[in-house]
Specification:
Largest sheet: 9 strands, mixed
Order of helices and strands: HEEEEHEHEHEEHEHEHEEHH
Strand content: 25-35%
Radius of gyration: 22 Å
Length: 265
């Protein structure tokens, strides 16, 4: 084979490899160059509406990550209970919505850790009860957003601890959104609300102190995760690479600090 032919063959091979890599990159998402992100935009400070724009920690983080991934973010407001199922149904490429990493969710999707937090317990300002830990919720009506990991945790606590200690069962009441739980507190339909720390503090502000935090420390601290469709290894690796990049620039630590979260290693 002549040097010219060899050179041409190598060039052609390189072009084919390049096209293969490009095709692989495009296959990561449903639409080329776009990352469709599912989130529930009623969950400040993680995500909420400011006019017609979705703002908060998750949109800010998504903007940094997609910049590194060379993708355009497309945020879709989705009901909380439909976020993880929406991945398998092809409704979005990823979920970035303040979701804890749990075994149940990992059975349906793959996750990339992105921050740590925990819950706080809230009650009405003039409530006769002031639960400081999860065990203090025995015998109370506790409001939760449907689909959260605390639903199962509180039911287990009720069965394994409250009942055996003769402290009364925890009545778990589920609502479509966190703000609806807070309304139930103020209307005295529930005794307490369990909510992730950042959102709990925002609820206290928005209700002008009609709802207060009764727990001095975090309850059920866990790791938050970005979720992608089960088996989408390429997209998962792209997220991990992008996370490493924004850590290196210091933008990740600054963002976590701004929203009073705990960074993950």
């Amino acid at each position: 084979m002549s040097p010219l032919t060899t050179s041409f063959s190598r060039t052609a091979l390189a072009a084919l490899v390049g096209l293969g890599c490009l095709a692989g990159a495009q296959a990561q998402t449903m639409a080329p160059g776009v990352l469709k992100v599912g989130l529930e935009a009623t969950y400040p400070p993680f995500e909420s509406y400011d006019g017609d724009k979705i703002v908060g920690f998750d949109p800010d983080l998504t903007a940094l990550l997609t910049r590194e991934m060379k993708l355009k973010p497309a945020l879709t407001d989705t009901k909380f209970v439909n976020l993880i199922p929406g991945l398998a149904a092809g409704q979005h490429d990823a979920v970035v919505s303040g979701l804890y990493i749990t075994p149940e969710r990992l059975a349906q999707a793959d996750a990339i850790p992105y921050a740590s937090s925990g819950a706080l317990i809230m009650v009405a300002k003039d409530s006769k009860v002031a639960p400081k830990t999860e065990k203090d919720l025995c015998g109370l009506k506790v409001g939760l957003q449907a689909g959260t990991s605390w639903v199962k945790l509180l039911k287990t606590l009720s069965d394994d601890y409250c009942k055996s200690a003769n402290k009364g069962a925890i009545t778990v009441m589920e609502f479509p959104t966190a703000p609806e739980v807070s309304q139930a507190i103020m209307s005295r339909n529930v005794d307490a609300q369990l909510e992730i720390a950042g959102a709990a503090k925002m609820i206290v502000e928005k209700t002008k102190g009609r709802v207060t935090i009764s727990s001095p420390d975090l309850v059920y601290p866990q790791t938050l995760g970005i979720y992608v469709k089960k088996g989408n290894t390429a997209l998962k690796q792209s997220f991990e690479t992008a996370m490493a990049a924004i850590r290196k620039t210091g933008e990740y630590d600054a963002l976590v600090k701004k929203y009073e979260l705990t960074p993950v290693k």
